[in-house]
Structures
1.
Amino acid sequence: TSGRAAIYQALLQLRLEPESLVLAPSYHCPTMIAPVILAGLKIGYFGIRADGLPNLNTVDALTASRAKAIIVPHYFGLARSLLEVRQWCDEHRIALIEDCAHCYFGNAGERPVGTWGDFATASLSKFFPVPEGGVLASAGNTVKALSLSQPSFKAQLKGYVDVLELATRHGRFSGINRALSGFFRLKNSFARGRANHSDTNAPAVDDDMMPSCDMGRIVQAPLSIALSLESILPRGRIIARRRQNFALYARHFAPMREVKGLFPWTDESAVPYVFPLWVEEPDRIYQELRSQGLPVFRWDRIWPGTPQMTDDLGPSWSHHVLQFLCHQDLSEADITATAVATLTLLANPQVPVAAIAQ
């Protein structure tokens, strides 16, 4: 159902002993760590270099001897060669899980994305307009049958309705969009009425990492609507528009000294997920941009117990790096508005985004 579910299934494919050590990067989304914990394994960490690759010097000999697997992501959709990592894993007999959540197309150096790892995982919903979906694949190993439970008929039907509603909200049905909008307004009014009579004394969800990772459906098969859409949707527009949006961000931010693109896009076959931007004083800018619903996020929620390591850029990336979405349905006007708001905040620290928008 998701990239995180695919990581969980990849770990099961390895058939590791309980509490085996799995290495993950210090710069991470919590959904990269949660599957390791749920699989009954122990988590260890490695630092990252300026090019986004693992700093293998941060893994001491004892840790390397104990580790059974390592999760290595391609950050931002700007894939890198994993030749060095692959050789290190082979030398230490460590299984490599190549996390392609930010990558779906192109090459990672000498090989296509997803073919360096013993297993590769990916996220469909980050690239395609589907409600959910993860990928587990391997270029060199047989993927054993997964024991996934099938969604109920009600869940399948809801999936189709949700897709229709989302498409209607974005005006995708020329000629009948108004009629469909009326139907969904009526549906949602009934739903709100039921919600108003629900138990208001329900306990609040604990603000903890694991609940926020939404791991409830990791052993379920994805909805059929997600599989159907992924199989028929064209790729060309997705690829072209994401490259164009990345290049447009780069042009907007190039003149500013206070910011910098994290590393250049050097592979013309890459299909970016986000434009990563280093900001010297990011907190206020990030909060203002988010308050206006602009397409930016950062990985600032680090799993408890992540260590501080010498020569590791992970902690500074978590604080300073903003990720601007390159999604194919963001227009040139959307990208320009986001970039201008960011640049104006940088140039005028006391001016809120709300004032900029006016």
2.
Amino acid sequence: YEELRVYIRNVASASQDEARYISMRLKDPVLSGFVLGKMSRARELDIDFSLTEESFVPEPIAQAYVDKIISIVGNLINNAFEALTNYSGERIVLLSFLVFDDELIITVDDSGGGIAEENIDKIFSKGFSDKGNDRGIGLYIVKKQLEEIDGSVEVESIPDEGTIFTVRMPYMRRQQ
């Protein structure tokens, strides 16, 4: 029983440290909870998922910003996790949030097999997928949501080295 108590205490302490780390960098509690949920999912998938140390997002002026961020980042992270599901190499996903002036820059970087060069221009098209039928909506939604707010997304991919999605979007922080 004592070994079990120590184990539970260690797991609880690690979870608290992780939550503290995230909440120090992401000032919106909904966004923090979302990222913590993705970290939990990554552990289930045996993927090393982390938020970069330089990440910081101040509290937004409106919840609509957080909803948009979660939708966009959720699609990108889900794609990164899926790219690593059957990947035999290192299984790493790095998430970064940086705010400069009134712009939020988000990167999702995975160590997977990359995207074939001939598909790079197609991946944001509705219905395009190299993973089967009834797919190909996530990146299309990302692009459409960013167009609605004058944001953008770029992709860099190197076969067998990974893919980096970089999102730029307007961000209005709550005044302190």
